[in-house]
Amino acid sequence: MHPRFAYRLVDVFTRRRFAGNPLAVFSDARGLSPEAMQRFAFELHLSEATFVLPAQRGDCDVRVRIFTPRRELPMAGHPAVGTAFALEQDGVIGARVCFELGVGPTPLERVPGPDGGPIWRMEQPLPRFDPGAPDAAAVAHALGLEASDLAGDVPLAAAATGLPFLMVALRSLDALGRARLRTDAWAGLGPPAAAWMPYLFVRTGADATGADTVRARMFAPGEGIAEDPATGSAAGPLGAFLVEHGALRPDPTGHARLTVTQGVEMGRPSELFVEIEGRPGQFRAVRVGGAAVTVGGGWLVE
After folding, report:
1. Which member of 43, 48, 88, 146 is catalytic?
2. 106-139: per-residue pLDDT in tens?
3. Within 13 Å, how many C-alpha atoms sit on residue 88's CB side?
């Protein structure tokens, strides 16, 4: 008999089923090789699947490995949030947990969300910014847009708390909806720009809680993901990027909040809640949170 490995299917950064970003969580992956984990992730063909193992570090509760259909990632937002939700549903953890990820210990906690319902919130590594600036017209062309569609109030630059994203501010929701990634043109941007995943966003004002709001899209064909409905590992650095360039202003205590809506164009709307602690050049914390809901589950055989 071949062993069965059960998974829970959850939608992340949403409270509605069949919205947000889907994730498969294998809550007990003991005995599963990394090669099999990659095969499972490819077979399920979701943007990511996670595999929970005993921690190898004394300061972490469990080890979580994250796989796209094509490779393992050191850190990602919706897999971390969705895995915490799934493990709590399975009775494995309480309201706090520290994951051992590829980037190191990653704390998560369940807290009240802006609507009063529970969300899981992760703390990401401190942001880093790449000073390199690709040609704006070439970037616009690679996104199927005109240079005039790019907003000029913040620079075209990369930011990361894990994987690097090129932050592309657009002038309008119309331009955001028209964007179509031309993979050959994107690859033609050359290193390091071609290695950055594009994160397109439009600033849309503020919500009822006073948090600044943006709507965003993310393309990652190199990961086997044509478009991602919610990208926590991009939303966190976006918040820090906006603070760094004066487009998101911290309150007197040094805290700034940003609500990111993503996935609208895909028919899978998502909400990501970002908290930045610190000021330009002096960041103390980046946190990204959201809700999750169980959709189903199943098992695979190695």
Report:
1. 48
2. 999 999 999 999 999 999 999 999 988 899 999 9
3. 22
Domain with CATH 3.10.310.10 in the chain: 4-123+291-301, 128-290
Is the domain 4-123+291-301 a CATH 3.40.630.30 member?
no
Handedness of CA 234, 89, 105, 240 (dihedral sign): positive
pTM: 0.97
88 is a catalytic site residue: no
Alpha-carbon distance of 180 to 40, in angstroms, equals 29
Cα(122)–Cα(12) distance, rounded to whole angstroms?
13
Query: Nearest CA to 232 among 21, 62, 58?
Result: 21
Comparing CA positions, the residue from 134, 163, 141, 155 lying closest to residue 232 is 163
Question: Collapsing DSSP states into helix, strand and coil, what is residue 77?
Answer: helix
Q: Which residue has the tokens 């970037």?
A: 139
